[in-house]
Amino acid sequence: MGNLSRRSFLKMGAIGAGAGASLAFANTKVSKEESMIDPNEGVKRVKTICSICSAGCGIIAEVKDGVWIRQDVAQDHPISAGSHCCKGVDQIDLVKSKMRLKYPLKREGGQWKRISYEQAINEISEKMLKMREKYGPDSMMFLGSAKMNSQQAYYWRKFAAFYGTNNIDHVARI
Ligand code: SF4
Questions:
Q1: Does 53 sit in the ligand 1 pocket, CB within 6 Å?
Q2: Does ligand 1 have an atom closer than 6 angstroms to the CB of 146?
Q3: Tens digits of residue pLDDT in 69-108
Q4: Tens of pLDDT along 105-127?
Q5: CA pair distance 4, 27, nearest whole angstrom
Q6: Does pTM surpass 0.85?
Q7: What residues have CB less than 8 Å from 89, skipping those under 6 apart?
Q8: Do the Cβ atoms of 39 and 19 come closer than 8 Å?
């Protein structure tokens, strides 16, 4: 490589690649038809609400061919009046996430297996009753959710009381 160090050689390569990419971009011709494509064509604006917490801020879901493709704020929403918190602004990704839990799963032999809601409720309630019998009702802690509204929080409180404990936290912090 003569006087040229390996480092300088790599730098030159990077500059060359960058210049090539810029040139290629500049040379891209956009046809008149392409430049006139309306990104909103066939897009329905559907009013909905953010489901992350019970504040229920307004969201406009932009839907094309049955797929939620973009999210906008709902300026005319009576509560949020066109704003979101940092969680709600990403509601679209939450809905489309591959990690989203859509049905009950049970881990068996190291594998997650889909089960019915009925089976999940039966198994969990059986375990809760066994725990109460063996360790007493204060062995259980009931955690609510910011998703819960006042009425749901009321039911949750009652549920803990019927179980026999005051170990309960609503979780909402707003
Ligand atoms: S998570 Fe944020 S955007 Fe969603 S409803 Fe609650 S406050 Fe509104």
A1: yes
A2: no
A3: 999 999 999 999 999 899 998 899 988 899 999 999 999 9
A4: 999 999 999 999 999 999 999 99
A5: 32
A6: no
A7: 71
A8: no
Ligand 1 pocket, 43 CB below 6 A?
A: no
Closest to 172 (Cα-Cα) out of 51, 79, 57, 54: 54
Q: What is the tens place of the pLDDT at every residue in 4-40?
A: 566 665 565 555 555 555 555 455 666 666 678 888 8
Paired tokens of 109: 């032999």
Query: How far does residue 96's CA lie from ligand 1's centre (Å)?
Result: 17
Tell me the CA–centroid distance for residue 12 and ligand 1, in Å.
49
CA of 120 to the centre of ligand 1 (A): 29
> Ligand 1 in contact with 57 (CB < 6 A)?
yes
Ligand 1 atom nearest the C-alpha of 146 is: 6
Q: Residues 111, 112, 116, 120: what is their CA dihedral angle, to the nearest 10 degrees?
A: 90
Question: Side chain identity at 4, as an amino acid letter?
Answer: L
Looking at the CA of residue 91, tell me the nearest atom of ligand 1. 4
Mapped onto helix, strand or coil, the DSSP state of residue 57 is coil
